[in-house]
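User: Hi! I have a protein structure encoded as tokens and I'd like to know what sequence might fold into it. I'm fairly new to this, so please keep things simple.
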């Protein structure tokens, strides 16, 4: 059944690498302005599933963004529909300046964007990430890991997304930097940006998520994960 309030609808999505089935018939809907945590152990298909949503890998099944079908192996169609991925390990261009990395976010969405509009977008994004403003002319590779993660987030926002997928955004970051990332997530969710947060740590993810779904051995399940995690947290305290 189609959810009229859903902006992301994945139906029976499977991803296979040769003989290895990474994701098996996974279905998920995200409503507009909702923050959903995709939790589960590493190596169980979470990244493969979100890459399928973004059109980055071959898949079976159907993905629709605001009703528009996203073709497999066609990331441009996902980007045109307003979905932006912040990948695990950031994937910045280390030799380019912070400014140029952020500019690439808008350029990826619209290659015809005017230069004055693009630079205005960077200035607007810097209001959200003021800690990056002093480093705009520095090579992105010269920044700390936490600062680089902020550049990756800023690059995503320069594309003016409606849906952001974050794949393990706090991986390898210090606790203080992780808190800053989660502050940003909270702020963005209040502005009705739809967010899919891939996270191994369910307790941390549920600090900002409206609900959680779990992927285990490539199978996506939603057995009241939020309630189960909250109960486990209470029992451990």
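Assistant: Happy to help. Inverse folding works backwards from shape to sequence: for each of the 237 positions I chose a residue that suits the local structure. Here it is:
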């Amino acid at each position: 059944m189609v959810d009229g309030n859903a902006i992301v609808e994945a139906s029976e999505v499977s991803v296979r690498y040769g003989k290895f089935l990474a994701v098996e018939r996974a279905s998920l809907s995200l409503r507009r302005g909702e923050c959903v945590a995709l939790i589960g152990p590493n190596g169980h298909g979470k990244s493969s599933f979100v890459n399928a949503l973004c059109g980055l890998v071959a898949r079976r099944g159907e993905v629709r963004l605001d009703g528009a079908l996203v073709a497999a192996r066609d990331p441009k169609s996902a980007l045109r529909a307003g979905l932006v991925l912040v990948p695990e390990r950031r994937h910045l261009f280390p030799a380019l300046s912070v400014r140029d990395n952020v500019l690439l976010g808008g350029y990826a969405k619209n290659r015809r964007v005017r230069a004055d509009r693009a630079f205005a977008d960077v200035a607007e994004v810097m209001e959200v990430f003021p800690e990056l403003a002093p480093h705009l002319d520095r090579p992105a590779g010269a920044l700390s890991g936490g600062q680089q993660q902020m550049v990756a987030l800023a690059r995503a926002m320069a594309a003016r997304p409606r849906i952001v997928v974050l794949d393990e955004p706090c991986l390898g970051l210090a606790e203080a930097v992780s808190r800053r990332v989660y502050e940003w997530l909270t702020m963005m969710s209040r502005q009705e940006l739809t967010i899919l947060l891939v996270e191994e740590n369910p307790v941390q993810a549920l600090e900002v998520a409206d609900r959680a779904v779990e992927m285990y051995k490539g199978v996506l399940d939603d057995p009241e994960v939020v309630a189960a995690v909250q109960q486990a947290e209470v029992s451990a305290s």
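A useful reference point when you look it over: Residues 91-161 form one domain. Feel free to ask if any position seems puzzling.
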